[in-house]
Predict the 3D structure of the following.
Amino acid sequence: MRDGASLAQRRFRDIVPPLIDDAYTLAKWLCRNCADAEDIVQEAAIRALKALETTAVDRPKPWFLAIVRNAAMTWIGRNRPQGLAYVGDMADLDAIDPRLDEAAPDPEAALIALEDGERLRQAIAALPGSQREALIMRDLNGLSYRDIAEATGAPIGTVMSRLARARAALAKTLKAEP
Amino acid sequence: MSTEPEDRGLRLNAALDGELEPMSALKFERDVAADPALAAEFQRLRSLRDAVRRHAPREAAPKGLADRIAGLAPAASPPVAAVVPFRRPAWSATRALALAASFAVLGLAVGAGVTSLRMQSPSHGVARSLVSDFARAEIAGQPYDVASSDRHTVKPWLAGRTTVSASIVDLAAQGFPLAGGRVAIVDRIPAPTLVYRHNEHMVAVTELPLDARGAHEGGGIETIDGYHVARWFDADLAYVAVSDMDEKTLADFVAAFRQARQLPAVEKR
C-alpha cells in the first residue's frame, strides 16, 4: 500500500505538473469560465494521484485531461442551471440545446477578421458542451483527434463532426451579429 | 468517400488540423489548387482557428493551484522519511544544487489544505514552501509582482494584499537594494515578501504574524535544497529569508535588516 502510494507520487510528479495549464484552461471553458475551475483541477489531480497507484500511463495528456473533463462534468452536474435536465454526459446537454441546428458551412471571410475577441469568446461559451470540449481540446490543448476521442470516450468520427460543427457554428454566430 | 457537404466540412477540418493521411493530404492540396472556392473556404476556416487561439488563449494556472497540486506529491519528503528520519540523499553538492530547483518547482510546496497530509514539522513546511516560492520565482524570471526600488511604491502595493503590514527598510547603502515585492501564501494567509538584490543574487524576506504556524521555530541559517534560509523574529513579527546568496552574505543581510528595523527613524507601521 505504502509502495503503491510512493510509486503513484513519483508518477504524479512526472505527469501532472506540466499539464496544469492545459487542465486549467480546459476546466475553465468546460464550466463556462466559472470560478471553480481551480477546484475542478485540484479534484482531478487528487483522482489522478489515486489512479496512479494502480495505473501506468502511456500518453499522459489525453489521460489527465480526460480526468479533468470528468471532474468538470461532476461539477456541472452539481451546479446545473435550473430547469435543465441533466443525465451525465456532454452529449445529453446537446440533446436539449436549442442551438444545435446544423450550422451554415460557409462562413463569410469578413467576419473572421473580426477584432471583437469578446464576441468570439461568448460564441465559444455558447457552444453545446460536446462541441465546446472538442474545440478547446483541439485548438487550445493541442490534442490530436485520436487523443480527443480517447479523452472523451467518443468515436473519432463523432469527434470530427463535433469539431466541424463547432467551427461552423462559431462562424455562423459571428456572421449573424455583425 | 462520398462528396456530401458534411464530408466536405470534415475533410476541410481534418486538413486544417493536420489529420489527413499523406496521400489524402496530397489529394487535398491538389483540389485546393484547382478549386478557388475550396481554397477560400479553407482560408476562412484557418482564420477562424487563428482567431480562436488569439482570443481564447491557453491560460496559465494560478500559482496557488500549481502549488497545491505539487503539494499532493512532494518530492522531498516521501513516506519513507517518516520511517528513517532525516535521511538525506547522498548527493554531491553540485548535483543537489542542480536538482534543487526542479524539485522545488515540482513538489516542495506545501499547498494550503494538504498540510495535514505531510509528516513533518509545521515550521519546516513553511520554510520549504518559501524555498519553493523562491525557486519558482527565480526560474520564472519574475522574482517579484511589483518591481520597484522605492519602498513607498512597494509598501502600499503589499498593504492592499496582505494582513501583515510590511516593514520595508532601505538597505541600499549596505549593498542590498530593494528590487520589489510579492505575496507569498503561508498557511492560506497572504504574507508580504520583500525581494532585495545583491549583485546577481536575491534574497526574499517573508514576514509572518507571530502567531503563524512555526513562527517561533528556527533561528540561525539552514540549507534547504541548495538555498539558504534564515529565520528570526522580533517583538512584532517573524521573518523567513530565503536566498541564493552564500551563508555569510545572508548572515550580513539579516544583521543589516534587523539593525535597520530597530532604528526608530525607519518607516514604522
About this structure: The CA atoms of residues 46 and 99 of chain A lie 35 Å apart.
